[in-house]
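Attaching the record inline, Q. Sequence:
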Amino acid sequence: MKEEESAYTDSISWEIAPEGICNKLKRNLENSYVDFKKNESNPLVGALLQSQDEKIDIYLIAKDPNEETYYGIIRVLGDSKRQIEGIPLSDIKAMKVEELPMRPFRAKAYIENGIKQYE
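Structure, as predicted:
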């Protein structure tokens, strides 16, 4: 587990790509896709993107290696909705987000109760 955790927590030092997602994060999320498909009910959330005005958080889980679609949970300030959804790269670009460091956690407890159960 330590390798997986360190792959995400050192993200603040990564070079950010123009779309707000660095190449290393993109590869990590593509590598997480198979595990996500095996465990869609409780996948590991591995990255956090936040809008510049801090009103939108995107918790990323995986990226489809064949498409420009990311999977994650979008949280908008003041909205209690939490669900996993496909997020096109164009939507991520439009939100003008930047990556923030975070500890990976399982999605199920967060979706159901807002609780982050860390690995």
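Confidence is low (pLDDT under 50) at residues 1-16. The chain has one domain: 2-114.

More tomorrow.
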